[in-house]
Amino acid sequence: MSAHEHNHSDFLNGTPWFVYECTIKLDESYRRIALFLLYLFIFMVGLLENLLVVWVNWRRRHSANGVLFCIINVSLSDLMVIVILPFFMMEVTMDRVWLWGRFLCKVTNLIYVVNFYSSSFFLAFMTLERYLALTRPSCPSIFPVIGRRRWLLCGGLWAFSLFLALMENVHVDLLEWEEPGCYMMPDYSYTEWFVSVSFLCMIFQFLIPAAVIITCNVLIARAVKTAPDVEGQRDVWLVHIYSLVFVTCWLPYHLIMLLMIIDDINPFIFSCNTVEVLYFSYIVAQGFSLLHCVANPLLYNFLSKTFRNNLINAVISSLPKDGNLDQVEVGPKRQDKGTLARN
């Protein structure tokens, strides 16, 4: 939601927002350039990474353990939002002008918000699965290979993500003020809807997954320290990096969202300059959060020796068979415990 949208909504609600005259002038042209380059980087790098992850891991989807099954779903979720990034790139360069009609306005928003939830859900379940597999190997898998439980739970997570996304998407529409724009704007009770949706986002997308990811990774790090095949402190630090990257991607976004909630509930708390900075930063934090589409494949796949070997083998097997290439196979077949990928 832009500052202009915020002004318009407060006008509709009869709530005075500009208690003091704004004296700050933020350069939105530099922000547009920075966001365009950021989206372009995420699109190019994230598309290549996630396509490789799905291509390599899809071959083992039926026999894959729970961790690998979650990794595939995370990559599919990230690919969904990467595919619609060109729309965001054009929108940001035209200062939030939307030229692609009402249907694509609602569809792109729905895809984005579904990824918003599903990626965090599968990361949390993957971390929990890894913790149980490491500390309680006799415990049944959350996503067992045999039976329908894996697919029912997977479908349930996607369905729940869709349900949460639809709660916002029903109020997303193409609105025309000076120029057409794609906004969430309920017909009534704007503040109540915005606060409710924002709290749902904060709880289900960040707080609950972050609690699971951080807690399980701390317990995994403790268990890894006593493992005989740990590669020094590398594996211990890598586990903490998993948590750090998740928090780094999403904490700025949710902190700004929390301040926006406070401003909507009580518009007299912050000065006009503070609110201008707040809504200016919101778009930046939203774009920055999409870096998880680049970070997830690196952390959970490319740092794994097993995945790198499988990638090389997949590339070799796809090449034309000629001479000795028929017998080439790279890397050991044993499970790579050193990187904790458990693939």
TrEMBL record:
Keywords: Cell membrane, G-protein coupled receptor, Membrane, Receptor, Transducer, Transmembrane, Transmembrane helix. It is found in: Cell membrane. Its main location: membrane. One of its GO terms (cellular component) is plasma membrane. InterPro entries: GPCR_Rhodpsn, GPCR_Rhodpsn_7TM, GPER1-like. It comes from the Eukaryota. The chain crosses the membrane at residues 33-55, 67-89, 109-128, 149-167, 193-220, 241-262, 282-303. The keyword Membrane applies. It is a multi-pass membrane protein. It holds the Pfam family 7tm_1. Belongs to the G-protein coupled receptor 1 family. PANTHER family: G-PROTEIN COUPLED RECEPTOR 182 (PTHR24226:SF0), G-PROTEIN COUPLED RECEPTOR 182 AND ESTROGEN RECEPTOR 1 (PTHR24226). This is G protein-coupled receptor 182. It comes from Nothobranchius furzeri. The lineage of its organism: Eukaryota, Metazoa, Chordata, Craniata, Vertebrata.
